[in-house]
Amino acid sequence: MPAGGRAGIANEGYKGRGGRPRGGSPEAGREFLAGFERAAKALAGGLAVEQGQEYRLSFYARCETGFSGPLTASIEKQNGTVLAKQNISDLGAEWKKFECALTVSASDVNARLVVTATTPGTLYLDMVSLFPKRRSRIARMACAATWRSSSRI
């Protein structure tokens, strides 16, 4: 990855609307699912994020000799506006699990997860997952924004 290089995390994961069902009735659940399905069909790969909500990012990473990091993981609008970001350091030659929390500053129905490097080098990512900290039973079944690729970026 060149210095300042960016890797968008492609996914076909959670594309529903932010929020959660209002009320505990079966009707509220059906209404939420219907809205979720409409939003999922309307978006082409983005993530629905809600202002003030914390999202848990986890992934495995390793790097080739010469890459010194750090990485920046961010949730961004499609136009590049950063909604949340976290620096990640201590990458090495061995696979290691990394986890961090990202709290978004604004709601967006078509956001993206981006990993940025500040130095050139070769980096490998695997099992990248982003989940809301607070999630309903419905969202747990539908919100896996997981991208698996041990590719050179």
Detailed description of the structure:
The protein has helices at 26-42, 137-142; strands at 6-8, 47-49, 54-63, 71-76, 82-88, 96-103, 108-117, 123-132. It has 153 residues and is α+β, with helices and mostly antiparallel strands. The chain has one domain (6-142): Jelly Rolls, CATH 2.60.120. The strands form 2 sheets. Strands 1, 2, 4, 5 and 7 form a 5-stranded antiparallel beta sheet that branches. Strands 6-3-8 form a 3-stranded antiparallel beta sheet, with no helix packed on it. The termini are close together. The relative contact order is 0.29.
Seen as an oligomer or otherwise, the chain set is single chain
Are there runs of 5+ residues with pLDDT below 50, and where? 10-18, 140-153
CATH architecture: Sandwich
**Beta-strand content:** 35-45%
Helix percentage range: 10-25%
Write out key terms for the chains shown.
about 150 residues, Jelly Rolls, elongated
Quick overview:
The protein is of the alpha+beta class. The protein has helices at 26-42, 137-142, and strands spanning 6-8, 47-49, 54-63, 71-76, 82-88, 96-103, 108-117, 123-132. Strands 1, 2, 4, 5 and 7 form a five-stranded antiparallel sheet that branches. A three-stranded antiparallel sheet has the order 6-3-8, with no helix packed on it.
